[in-house]
Amino acid sequence: MSFSPSYSLRYPEKTVEDYVNFRFRDSKFEMERVIGTISMIPREVETVLDIGAGYGVFLEELNKTKGIKGVGVEIAEDRIDFARSRGIAWLGEPHQNWNSLPGHLTWLLEWRF
Q: What pTM, to 2 d.p., does this model score?
């Protein structure tokens, strides 16, 4: 897996919000993938850790559709900033102690592209 460059390098005319809508929320394929993944999460799950969370679209949809709290991990600062601006919880620095998760991790999903 490789890290893709920031949206601003590929789409300098778009705001982050416009890019996220264009690339994810307005994409039938991407949203079907997100909803399909969310549908596999058992009801008793309370917290999900999303590693490589990008702009937080999955975590935002997870909370909206199932009321599940999610925490993201990401290496791209612009993606973290955008997700935080939308209320998504973030672990912070990659070296941060995993025990800092709010509550406890109740389920882990491996989601591959």
A: 0.75
